[in-house]
Design brief:
This is SDR family NAD(P)-dependent oxidoreductase. It comes from Amaricoccus solimangrovi. Helix 1 packs across helix 7, helix 3 runs parallel beside helix 4 and helix 4 packs parallel to helix 5. The protein has a single domain, classed as Rossmann fold (3-Layer(aba) Sandwich), CATH 3.40.50.720. The protein is α/β, with parallel strands linked by helices. It is 45% helix and 13% strand. The relative contact order is 0.16. The longest helix has 27 residues.
């Protein structure tokens, strides 16, 4: 599978990122899985390999470690020379609070992870995506901007979406392709922080939303399990 497409997925240790990484691996992508949680990354690797996909590259890394991101991009360049797909699923869920009572540290953390890290990914991954025949950046957004008590989270996610919309317009002719994906509510750890005790029965499984996201991408059919 030396010519297999290469996909980088953030937030790949759980939730939607895990489901996207697993689905891409099943379709023969070489997955570069980025997350802070080593155990979740190892579970993803086990799942991909059990389903016959290529062994993923596991990268335990915080998206706020910009020097680490730079080293990762250099490693991708040296190994493959390009990146076919980037799916940015990672997000930070700050504590809920009315706007006048948001703690500075919580607001700063939300901006750092949900906005600043997104900007760094755009900056660092664009050369790798442009080196591919049809590079594609997919940003997972949220529609909670303006909802009560979601000021820190909603402001950062709304700003990140605005950044990606500009990036999409700027890249329309020269690439990479840029897509923004809004998933349905899912039973993720992030959502559980906002809605503790919520009955997950009415939520969309992460695997279903990963399949919807991959409808945006020209992906091979799943490989046969070994």
């Amino acid at each position: 599978m030396s010519d297999a497409p290469v996909a980088l997925v953030t937030g790949a240790s759980r939730g939607l990122g895990y489901a996207v990484g697993r689905a891409l691996g099943a379709r023969g992508f070489r997955v570069v899985a980025v997350a802070r949680t080593v155990g979740g990354l190892e579970e993803l690797a086990d799942a991909i390999e059990a389903e016959g996909g290529p062994s993923p590259t596991l990268v335990p890394l915080s998206l706020t470690d910009f020097q680490g991101l730079a080293r990762l991009c250099l490693a991708v360049h040296e190994r493959w020379g390009h990146l076919d797909l980037a799916v940015h699923c990672a997000a930070n869920a700050p504590p809920l609070a009315p706007a006048p009572f948001i703690a500075d540290k919580d607001f700063d953390q939300s901006i750092e992870v949900n906005l600043r890290a997104t900007e760094r990914l755009v900056t660092m991954l664009t050369p790798l995506l442009r080196a591919a025949p049809a590079g594609h950046f997919i940003h997972v957004t949220d529609d909670r901007a303006g909802q009560p008590n979601h000021g820190a989270y909603g402001a950062a996610k709304a700003a990140a979406e605005a950044l990606l919309r500009s990036f999409a317009a700027e890249s329309a002719r020269i690439g990479p392709k840029v897509s923004i994906f809004l998933p349905r509510p899912m039973p993720t750890a992030l959502r559980a922080r906002f809605f503790p005790g919520e009955n997950p029965a009415g939520l969309a499984p992460c695997a279903e939303e990963a399949a919807r996201l991959l409808e945006l991408v020209d992906v091979p059919a799943p490989v046969a399990s070994a």
